[in-house]
Here is the input.
Amino acid sequence: MRENVLHYLWLHKCYDVTNIYTTNNEKVEVLNSGQYLQSSGPDFFNAQLIINNQKWAGNVELHVKSSDWYLHHHEKDENYDNVILHVVWEHDVEVYRKDKTEIPVLELKNFIELETLSKIKRLFSKKSWINCEDSLSKVSDFTWFSWKEGLFLERLEIKSKLIYQVFENCDKDWEATFFILLAKNFGLNINGNTFFEIARSIPFTIVRKESFEIKQLESLFLGRANLLNKDFQDEYANELKKIWEYQKSKYNLTELKTIQVQFYKLRPDNFPTIRLAQLASLYVVSKNLFDRITRISTFEELKEIFNIQVSTYWQSHYNFDKVSKKRHVKLTNSFIELIAINSVVPIQFAYGKYNGKENLDEYLKLMYSLNAESNIIIKRFEEFGIEVKDAFDSQALLQLKNEYCNFQKCLKCKIGVELLQKS
Here is the structure.
């Protein structure tokens, strides 16, 4: 028996509510199971019970065995002084509060039908990609939609934690915070963390000062990425190197020897040289970028902001000293969509929450206008008949797989709960 299964059984009253008794044969009536806290302290807060005709209000703690009470040292913790019922699967020892008063114990295994346990066992016994993959089509549309909305918000909350950390480290400057977050996403999976460190190492006051001319920002970003530390043949590369040497001295920017961008396995359009050049162009062209970002709600507005072109040199180069066919190096729609999903909507959410002005409808409106991501997780859900229409769907399903399915949290998942109740 797992403790999370006990939580599920108690929360959803998977027992004969009219016929349960403590180990001392005292009748128990559950008026309110309590609030499921899922945090430190007792498992269920502010439950209301009638035990042996006496009404009680307090907390309920659950364990696989009664002796777990002592294993977890609850007898010494005042947070457990108000526990009115100890719900266990197996009762192996009497339990007492810190003041030595005995706590009534409900041995739940005596009041659960075998069919209920069989359903749960079947759910967890499958050796598959996810436990419920054969039953996903049975889930109601209402459950899917409400759960996806919750999953999407959970994912935004997780992303917001990083944003708030950066925000605090940037002296609560939202422009600087967005610059660092945006740089990380310009680096994609391969160079994302490296771009993040590069952006963090440049005070945003310097970016503001240098954004009047493209060469200034290119030299700053490429120099910080250790891409200007050798001899070049091209005049443009040597000019950037000269500017970078001056910037290092002017702003006291020490070398970051640990910074090493990757070119291996990347398509040329994703080379760090190109992505950093694009980031530089964006900050030269778009002034007050963060303020503009907070006010958009459609993909068309976003495309207008990110409609940038790199400097002339990078239109015929992917790297220094290597000429390539001249082309228009603009951000593709798919790349802008990734920026929207991973940078724009998360910072809109974090900024709105910080100022007490969350607007879920606006975030959802933008996500609905973006194409769904394409990766192995999304493709597997589609194989099981799940329609993935847009970025809202794909973000919710990524949260579902990574935070619930991978850890078999089926009993905390609305999909799992509905399937158990239906079967």
